[in-house]
Batch of 3 targets.
Target 1
Amino acid sequence: MNELLKGRGAQTSVSNDFLSEEVVTEHIEGLDEELLIEKPKTSLFYESPNKVVNKVTSPDVGMEYSLNPYQGCEHGCIYCYARKTHEYWGFNLGLDFETKIVVKNNAPSLLEKHLLQASWKVKPIVLSGNTDCYQPTEKKLKITRALLEVFAKYRHPVGIITKNTLLLRDIALLRDLASEGLVKVILSVTTLDEKLRQIMEPRTASISKKLTAIEKLTNVGVPVHIMNAPIIPSINHHEIPRIIKAVADHGALSVGYTTVRLNGKIADIFEGWLNRFFPERAQKVLNQIKELHGGKVNDSEFGRRMHGDGNIAETIQQLHHMAKRRYLRNRQSPEWNLSAFRKGGNYTLFT
């Protein structure tokens, strides 16, 4: 077995279906000169897009508009559906996805330009929806923080989806937005098992830090919702009740879930991960994922793809609903405030 690349989810690179030619190292014995193969380091690639606010056309993702300041994600979650999108940049969805990060430095100015359009009608814009807006490189680049400053300036509603507690750095901004019903945080909690987290989503925040973040945000009035996702049969599905109890105890208002689906070559790296860490049940897990999706590991049909179908899907759904009724009864999310928006700006938090 090859040496484990610590801090990385994928352990290999895989071919990009959009490229006709690639340099590979699978057959080193055929090369004239020895290649120096080192553990991959994170590299940043800068893009200058013309717009950053995206209309979401998928009817089952729970958002109308999204904004992704980064493409690719250092968190390295082995199951991540966004891996597939990295191929459009000429990279692969294995190690490239978590080591070659595309950065949109001009995202804050483009957001401001978007909000100033005469035709713009206020709708919550969600950070990120694809890759994490608080992934590790945000600590240095602070693009997400700059985006929040724009939202605060114009009193515009914003949602945040993240697996990282770096968002606590911006708690003053979040508290200010929350004071007028302008922000909701969705924190992803996949497991309470720290050993599983370290191999399944290696650069995300620990569960103890996530629970602390839920409590701190709740205490300053920021509404926190949880995505218990993805649910993977025979890996983390049995944790559903305990996860919902834990996040409820720390102040979460609601919990949603999705089941795992493996589009394209994500299935290949996920199967490699299973064989490395769970060889005794790898085939069982894959078969159960297929049972969720009509005999395949992926499903693209809207409405069905998120939760799956069949006996296993029903069991997961029952566990989820029973725990919600027990631990989250009578909790409600505040309504979005769409009336505070000021096109002229109204930014007084730090002045």
Target 2
Amino acid sequence: MSASVPKTLIRHLVRWVGTKLGGDILPVVEDILDTPISPELIPSREGEIDQRTEDTLGAYALHDFFLYHMMDSGASPTRLFPLARQAFAGQYDDAQILCALRTFVRRFFTQQFKRSAMPDGPKVGSVSLSPRGDWRMPSDAQMGVFMREVDALEDILNG
């Protein structure tokens, strides 16, 4: 998230600007949008991208979905999972959603220190993780309760 704008929204904004500008800029915008999102500045080898972050973390659409519903209504993993199942039916299966949810919960708690140190930025959407605005979370918050819910969901799915 950059200045409270999730990666999935940034892609839509870039596409919208490209279509509005049109002309010679559109192929450049399409090329940008065809490039997988990656936080690393790892040089490509022979034009091939080595790191595809979504392959490791799961779909950004799921992570942004979890983040929005957790921040907007305080949804816990027990609530997030069925919401995601319904919202992404036919796009992601239960195992993909659960894997992304586990990764989201782990990273949400373990990466809080980054949010505490983030630079000032505007609040763009209805939720923000800025420590100077809506979000107050200690850097050393523990994920145990949330992860136990994810484990229980996994137990239920695995029978």
Target 3
Amino acid sequence: MGNNFYRKTAGDTIFNVVNIVVFTLFTILCIFPFYYLFINTISDNALVGANAITLLPKGIHFGNYVALKDVQDFGNAVMVTVSRTILATALMVLCSAFAGYLTTKREMWNRSFWYRALVITMYFNAGTIPWYLNMLGLGLTDNYLGYIIPAIVAPYNIILVKTYIESIPASLEESATIDGATTMQVFIKIILPLSKPILATIAVFGAVGNWNSLQDSLILMSNSPGLYTMQHRLWVYLNSSSNLAAAMSGGGAVTTGMLNNKVIKYTISMVTVIPIMLVYPFMQRYFEEGMMLGAVKG
């Protein structure tokens, strides 16, 4: 037992202390920008305009967030973004899981060819104009499906799922096959439940990507304001914040001072960030496990 006992030296203690201090400071640096935005959105607007808010909020109120409901089309943009994020992410996860599973099957017709063709798409991009012309030709401009269909196939996520599934013992699938299970039954009852970590990981990737996406709405939905995403609306508002201030103040929801451009930018930035910040903590356990296990094999 004495040979296995390790006594910490002064150097070990110093190393641990330095690590704790450095990572604590790094964490503060990462969190503080969001904290600063948040305290400015709930502080008195006049004080925010005068740069009087530093570390603690003053004149706390939530009128800025309430006032967003009075902004024309903002509620519709939120609904488009939320529905697009949920639907596109769910279909992407399902497609990635099934495609990743199929590429692990040696009996798949021309498996190597299809897998390599999938990987090649990660290295070559035709550019924005050919992409737009392709979407135009497919009838996906000014069409809600323009958000959904292109997001279904994600090569990188398929590769992650494939790698993860290859780490699952083959004996489980073989036993199910011997018992008479079909390929689809094996996929649904064995592969999907055991792949929760990696599926949660790619779900985070997909949700963040769909939530933050601006280019597709900006380019594809230019003639359909009813299909603007929240990111698109916020981009428009940031470029005409003085008009937005009038719109937000007109509803009478804000009574703690005149809205100004700074308050507007802070508020809409927080509206963009908060949902993703709330989702990630619930997915973190699966996210970390999926990334570690999915990276074992190439």
